[in-house]
Amino acid sequence: MPADKLIFDPVSPVSQEDEAPHPVARKKVRFWIDGREVVAEEGISVLEAAHRVGIEIPSLCYLKNINEIGACRVCLVEIEGARNLQAACVYPVSAGLKVRTSTPRVLRARRTVVELLLSDHHRECTNCIRNLNCELQHLADTLGIRNIRFTGETSNYPIFNKNPFIVRDYNKCIKCRRCEAICSKVQEVHVYSAQNRGFDTVIAPAFMKDLAEVACITCGQCVIACPTASLVEKECIDEVWQALADPDKYVVVQTAPSIQVTLGEVFGLPVGTVVTGKLVASLRRLGFDRVFATDFTADLTIMEEAHELLERLDGRGGPLPLLSSCSPGWIKFCEHFYPEFIPNLSTCKSPHEMFGAITKTYFAQKEGLDPKKIVVVAVMPCTAKKFEASRPEMGSGDWKDVDFVLTTRELARMIRQAGLNFRQLPDEEYDTPLGIASGAGTIFGATGGVVEAAVRTAYAITHGREMGVIDFEEFRGISGVKEAWVELKGRRIKVAIAHGTGNARKVLDRMKAGEQFDYVEIMACPGGCVGGGGQPIFGSRDHKEISLDYRHNRADALYRIDYSRRIRLSHENPAVQKIYAEFLGAPLSETANKLLHTHYTPRGPLPGYAVNPVQ
Amino acid sequence: MLDKYSRLDKVIKVHGRQPGQLIRILHQAQEIFGYLSPEVQAYLAAKLNIPLAEIAGVVSFYSLFNSEPRGKYTISVCLGTACYVKGSQEIFQALKNELDLDDDDTTPDGLFTLRSTRCMGACGLAPVVAINDDIYGQVKAGDVAGILSRYQAKELADDHEYQRPAEHPATAPPPH
Ligand code: SF4
Ligand code: SF4
Ligand code: SF4
Ligand code: FES
């Protein structure tokens, strides 16, 4: 590519994760764990040091770098010279320290702690959504709990399930505060805090309100942080089985780009394994009439959004910067906390909603189907899309664009319920035409993917000739905020990318302070969709962290798919070209506007209260 | 009289918006409004830029804060160890029956709020019941009706009718 055409210089990347969690400079110290000599940086926790040498100290409330509060006392160890047992997750190592991690005293104490937790826990593992994937259950197993010596008052709260995305069962809460930590420190939404006192303490929204009634962005990060079934997605598996069994219904399924790189984890495949073919095969066997890819409408989103960007750069159609709109958690965040930027949001619906609208119009016409008989099921990495699908503006008067949203985890459960041996399934291809996608549509599933896909296309449109595919390595990776200059339409435009709404705040506050950007991509979940709140719950049990590494591995797999595709530009997708020729006309046409675009609702930070936000 | 929310604004101004002042501000807000309704807590959340969940957490943690309207007379029954062994639980039960209330509830006429407390530091008088600032020692369950009737009589004697605090004070604060 000619160097004068594409200026690309990343601007001082800021990354939350690059910052050391402990600001002190570390010198190495020598100490002993279970008689073994260990050398590590002074001040790291005993738990972390033990983990590095292959000793797993059990833990529950600990979430590396996110929740290090020593609350649950499951990680107790003996420290020579200290009278009481100490919590390994918050006890810093120092020179000469002698730690014993599994003496009879330690084991007894840990057992007592877990028995106490279990004594006020609705123990119903057999009919629990987290059965076999629960940290508390796992702990009870590793510690060999055989009876629970304590009986006493037990909690009895109603189940909170008024909203369409997350169900809360306080009777299974162990008060570890991991949900609060991730919501406040990573997402900076601050929904949860400890309420009440003593036995009545709950980790809950203000006044124990349902998540539907507070400024929750529905991202589901608290769900993947929760060690038990106290926070889970609202399942709609049974409704989908019902639709599949109904001979009157034509059931179409679409899978988000990231599902093909995460579903395998549930079936024991390494993180980052691409399982596209088996995913398609399993959906066919579950009985879906057509198996399509949301990657297709991601390409459509790019067509619309790239044209929106070019229009706005021309001074038409709305203010700059253009803010991406494919992440419904981010949309709700903007509506609650930054309503002044609603005019900046792209009006594009998120790809799965576009998919629903296209299926019930274009596809229905083509196939001669009654749109009211079509059921659209979306397999998504996300709880926010469950909320989005319930928004009244997402549909025509006669139907909802998307009828049911299943998380990756729910699909895995359906595959298990159907008795499919996932790993032995053959590799199959998506159906046409709505299963045809470019590599650009696929990288939507990772942070930076939307900007990269849109810039690829905008660049090709403005230069009027094929440039080949430009790989924007600088848009990739796990830095919290990424920035770059790109030359487009004869001017340098400033692009920023943020993932996780805590990082989004950094960019938005700079915008508020007057800094100019032209195009900003925001995804609500850390890492983008690969780190979504509906993805397989992975990591904390064995790794004690919601690690960005595994999100990174998942994202790498998406880029591998992109490289392997023959078509890597959204506007070159033949199915996209066809739908514009046959049905939509041009990007931003009247039909496109009606079906593919939407509007937003300012909600304010304190819904339900008549208070003025702080000036 | 200065509107209640304007008075609250003054409190906020005086105590700045520094961290660590929340308890003090909540305390004064309770003095102004009588209790800390969810609306008042939300107002403070917005003004102080503190998450509402955190404010509600503090209010629900300390027993000195009330998030519901209180009666004119708060009856506190000590359930601390010394009073408990002398039978304060029965007194508490008798009051519950007499007033038809649960712990931390207020009578519909707004006269009495009943609540259990921990040690009030008057163990010598156990079992102890306090009604606002009046302390009653060595109370027996049978005394309960008699004690209550004094306050009820006082109300009748008072010329003006006692007005129950409004359930929701000015839900919408002044536009400013
Ligand atoms: S949350 Fe875990 S321990 Fe509790 S019932 Fe469910 S599986 Fe069992
Ligand atoms: S869904 Fe997201 S915003 Fe809502 S409570 Fe959970 S972490 Fe917080
Ligand atoms: S809801 Fe889950 S994450 Fe939150 S405190 Fe309870 S057990 Fe912990
Ligand atoms: S106290 Fe260490 S894991 Fe909870």
UniProtKB/TrEMBL annotation, chain A:
It comes from Moorella mulderi DSM 14980. SMART domains: Fe_hyd_SSU (SM00902), NADH-G_4Fe-4S_3 (SM00929). Belongs to the complex I 75 kDa subunit family. Pfam families: Fe_hyd_lg_C (PF02906), Fe_hyd_SSU (PF02256), Fer2_4 (PF13510), Fer4_7 (PF12838), NADH-G_4Fe-4S_3 (PF10588). It comes from the Bacteria. Residues 27-105 form the 2Fe-2S ferredoxin-type domain. Residues 105-144 form the 4Fe-4S His(Cys)3-ligated-type domain. Keywords: 2Fe-2S, 4Fe-4S, Iron, Iron-sulfur, Membrane, Metal-binding, NAD, Oxidoreductase, Repeat, Translocase. Gene3D superfamilies: 3.10.20.740, 3.30.70.20, 3.40.50.1780, Fe-only Hydrogenase (Larger Subunit), Chain L, domain 3, Iron hydrogenase, small subunit. Residues 164-194, 205-236 form the 4Fe-4S ferredoxin-type domain. One of its GO terms (biological process) is ATP synthesis coupled electron transport. One of its GO terms (cellular component) is membrane. Its cofactor is [4Fe-4S] cluster; [2Fe-2S] cluster. Its EC number is 1.12.1.3. Coiled coil: none annotated. It is found in: Membrane. This is NADP-reducing hydrogenase subunit HndC. One of its GO terms (molecular function) is hydrogen dehydrogenase (NADP+) activity. InterPro entries: 2Fe-2S_ferredoxin-like_sf, 2Fe-2S_ferredoxin-type, 4Fe4S_Fe-S-bd, 4Fe4S_Fe_S_CS, Cytosolic_Fe-S_CAF, Fe_hydrogenase, Fe_hydrogenase_lsu_C, Fe_hydrogenase_ssu. Its main location: membrane.
Automatic annotation (TrEMBL), chain B:
It comes from Moorella mulderi DSM 14980. Its cofactor is [2Fe-2S] cluster. Belongs to the complex I 24 kDa subunit family. The keyword Cytoplasm does not apply. This is NADP-reducing hydrogenase subunit HndA. Transmembrane segments: none annotated. It is an enzyme of class 1 (oxidoreductase). CDD domains: TRX_Fd_NuoE. The keyword ATP-binding does not apply. [2Fe-2S] cluster binds at C78, C83, C119, C123. Binds 1 [2Fe-2S] cluster. Its EC number is 1.12.1.3. Keywords: 2Fe-2S, Iron, Iron-sulfur, Metal-binding, Oxidoreductase. GO terms for molecular function: 2 iron, 2 sulfur cluster binding; hydrogen dehydrogenase (NADP+) activity; metal ion binding. Pfam families: 2Fe-2S_thioredx (PF01257).
